[in-house]
Amino acid sequence: MPRRRSADRRWDTIARVASDDYRSASYQVWQAMAAGWDRERSWMWEVSRPVSENMLEALAPEPGQTILELAAGTGETGFGAAHAIGPAGRLISTDFAPEMVAAARRESARLGLTNVEHREMGAERMALEDDSVDGVLCRWGYMLMADPARALAETRRVLRAGGRLSFSVWGAAERNPWASVPARALMEHTGAPAPKPHDPGIFAMADPDRVRALVGDAGFGEPRLQEIEVSWRFADFDGYWRYLTDLAGGIALVLQGLPDADSDAVRSMVERGVAEFRTDGGLALPGVVLNAAAQ
Ligand SMILES: C[S@@+](CC[C@H](N)C(=O)[O-])C[C@H]1O[C@@H](n2cnc3c(N)ncnc32)[C@H](O)[C@@H]1O
Fold first, then answer.
1. Ligand 1 centroid – CA 266 distance (Å)
2. Complete DSSP assignment for 61-117
3. Nearest CA to ligand 1 atom 1
């Protein structure tokens, strides 16, 4: 069935292990997601705020410091640090996707933040001097990178001695049905193979032992790990489906490329898969992140 094969090919490309093909597919995904993330930033922030507040608490930014945010997306987490470091400090807000950087830049201007520098920058090779920043934030970024070990080594290189790293990755698939149910439905429907445990993707750093190993190998001390729960709330299944097709990274791009009949079939599978999370007010899908802080 040729229509299925085209969906399979997209999925295979997105899921490919550490390679330039993966990087360029991921770049295309996030370029395409930027408009939706920009439009829905207030709703996303409402859901994700406890994650960022915990990260900022661990970072403990001080007035006058230079803070680097990696894979900043639309920028919200870093903007919290920008307030704390004040006019004498500097937030370097970065992402490899120019559309995300543009969205973050528009928002910092709207907020009247004058201490933010926006840059297009990949986290696996940073155009920054050694020992040049006091703290690093990265929310939901490292696990998507083709080579998170390299990104963490780069993070260590640009951080001054004693500087703090505070980041967040998604926890185990079974505790994040909002993402694992549609991912499984897509695999079942297209016959695409499951990603290997360390393939880049949403669950690539869900194992706390892997996080500890990656952080330690990059030259940091033992990280402090904390689980934070989130709840993705939608007025109805249609709202969740819109989220999946507009904002959900690689899943969204695959869904957008499916012919109608395949899309309808996957939609029914997902609807059945999340039925247990129906509430009087719509849908409330649980999620768990792992926040890590290290020096
Ligand atoms: C799931 S979004 C998270 C965005 C933002 N940190 C947040 O939490 O709202 C992932 C972001 O990582 C960025 N990204 C992915 N791989 C990257 C890389 N190798 N270097 C820099 N940014 C990257 C994407 O462009 C995207 O903005």
1. 26
2. --TT-EEEESS-TT-HHHHHHHHHH-TTSEEEEEES-HHHHHHHHHHHHHHT--SEE
3. 140
pLDDT per residue as tens digits for the range 172-205: 999 999 999 999 999 999 998 888 878 999 999 9
Give 6-17 pLDDT, tens digit per residue: 555 555 555 544
Binding site membership of 104 for ligand 1 (Cβ less than 6 Å): no
Contact 219, 156 (CB under 8 A): yes
| Helix pair angle (20-39, 41-59), 10° resolution | 110
State pTM to two decimals.
0.93
Contacts of 11 (CB under 8 A, 6+ apart): 186, 187, 190, 192, 254
